[in-house]
Specification:
479 residues; alpha/beta; five-stranded mixed beta sheet; five-stranded parallel beta sheet
């Protein structure tokens, strides 16, 4: 594939843009909007946050910022491995959950044919992709009994190899492979994406002779889509992962400034932070493109797990964090929009708009005598969905509701790489504004530890005792 992403003119044409007009008081009213002075007054705080981010990067604790540069050679190796092996398999299955799955799904939805798995012509010689992202027994069994295991490769993704959901998926899939194809087939039908130096999965991979890719120790799950966590499945489905990283590098350059007015990641974080402080903690992401539907799901984890924290860096109880919500235009104009238009003034809506869709589809003609139908004939679905976005944007603005738009010139690997990096950096910057650790998840760990204890994992017996001593249910309150 030609390296179009190296052309500077093309890069500029493909630059995603942040439209924040409707975050300001001249459009949404003084009670809800902001002034340019409000932003400028945050500049000193922004400079402090910027210096903290640079220091953390220098210390090696913000690994996601390094990936666009450090993983260029790794991406080339992954791409070569995929090209040499993809034709051997009909199915590629990601065994992982949360940060080990959502980015994979988002890339697939955005960058491949919408019916990739059932459209052989669009798929070409690449395997179908399946990402269960859960341990629901009905769904998982249904997948495993549907697959031809001889034509299936599984990518097991867990840094520690201790994630209960992922390792239970792996144990089950491995058992089926051994039963049907023999123990010697495990190395041919599994990839391990894990820590290089520690954890259970790397031990298993070495023992079984499984092809292995490494997750950098300083990259957490929800920030890992530009590492082998997301790159391997993307390469196996024909996505140009080198262009994806190039987009991230381009956005990193754009964001290499402490000037709020020049840095889209910092500016967007600042506006959302100000809104949260003003009683608008609900952050809605609403793509007007089905291809971007699942990037909103990825964003939801990134924002929630990173910024929802009980204590700040000084250990003071603060209970902060905006609540991310995913929606889809135009679908949710008929579902959630009524609440956004006339409900509480507690939300910021971020639209994702696409200027040029991959396809154009004309609306058919008919029923000339019915004016309420015939007006649609001869226009395109492209015009319809874009107009609906702009109309919803205007309606929200007229009702004094904060909203902004991220504009994609088109949805491709380069623009997706930009968006991913921008939102990851935006999240790190927001963590500085909130004065919390955006890279841990203690609230998630407690639930995991109870599960470990109940299922008998060594070292968690006290958690089982605590679980067993939980308050009994009052049957009178189960109606």
């Amino acid at each position: 594939m030609s390296k179009r992403y190296e052309d500077q003119a093309w890069q500029e044409r493909m630059r995603i843009k942040l439209d924040i007009n409707n975050m300001f008081s001249e459009n949404v009213g003084e009670e809800h909007g902001y002034t340019q002075d409000d932003i400028s007054n945050m500049q000193t705080q922004a400079e402090n946050a910027h210096q903290a981010i640079l220091a953390a990067k220098e210390e090696g604790t913000l690994g996601f910022m390094e990936l666009p540069e450090t993983h260029q050679e790794i991406a080339a190796e992954i791409k070569e491995f995929a090209q040499n092996n993809a034709q051997q398999y009909d199915n590629f299955v990601v065994l992982g959950i949360g940060g080990s799955a959502l980015g994979n799904i988002a890339l697939q939805t955005a960058l491949n044919h919408p019916y990739y798995n059932i459209n052989e012509e669009a798929r070409g010689d690449y395997p179908k992709l399946f990402v269960p992202d859960n341990v629901d027994p009905v769904r998982l069994k249904g997948l495993l009994e549907t697959l031809d295991l001889e034509k299936t490769i599984f990518n097991v993704i867990s840094k520690s190899g201790g994630t209960a959901e992922t390792m239970s998926q792996f144990l089950t899939a491995r058992s089926l492979v051994v039963e049907e194809l023999g123990a010697e087939a495990v190395a041919e039908h599994f990839i391990a994406t894990t820590s290089q130096d520690s954890g259970n999965l790397i031990k298993i991979a070495k023992q079984e002779g499984i092809k292995t890719y490494y997750i950098p120790e300083n990259v957490g799950g929800r920030f890992s889509v530009l590492s082998p966590v997301g790159l391997v499945s993307a390469a196996f489905t024909g996505i140009d992962i080198e262009e994806l990283l190039a987009g991230a590098r381009y956005m990193a350059q754009l964001c290499d400034t402490e000037d709020l007015w020049a840095n889209p990641a910092y500016l967007n974080a600042t506006l959302h932070y100000l809104a949260d402080q003003d009683g608008k903690p609900m952050s809605v992401m609403m793509p007007y493109s089905h291809s971007l539907k699942d990037i909103a799901d990825w964003y939801r984890q990134l924002w929630a797990e990173s910024l929802g924290k009980r204590v700040n860096r000084e250990g003071e109880v603060v209970h902060v964090g905006p609540t991310p919500i995913k929606a889809l235009g135009a679908t949710d104009q008929h579902s959630q929009a009524q609440l956004y238009m006339e409900g509480p003034f507690d939300k910021v809506v971020t639209f994702l708009e696409v200027e040029e869709f991959k396809e154009e589809l004309e609306i058919g003609f008919g029923y000339d005598e019915i004016a309420g139908v015939s007006y649609l004939g001869g226009t395109t679905f492209n015009q319809l969905i874009t107009t609906e976005k702009k109309a919803t944007e205007l309606a929200l603005t007229k009702k004094n509701r904060l909203n902004c738009t991220v504009i994609f010139p088109e949805v491709n690997e380069f623009t997706m790489g930009q968006f991913i990096y921008m939102y990851e950096l935006q999240t790190a910057f927001a963590g500085e504004l909130y004065n919390i650790d955006a890279f841990n998840q203690p609230g998630v760990e407690l639930g995991k530890e109870y599960t470990y204890g109940v299922l008998g994992r060594e070292g968690f017996s006290e958690m089982k005792d605590e679980f067993d001593a939980r308050p009994s249910k009052d049957g009178n309150l189960i109606i």
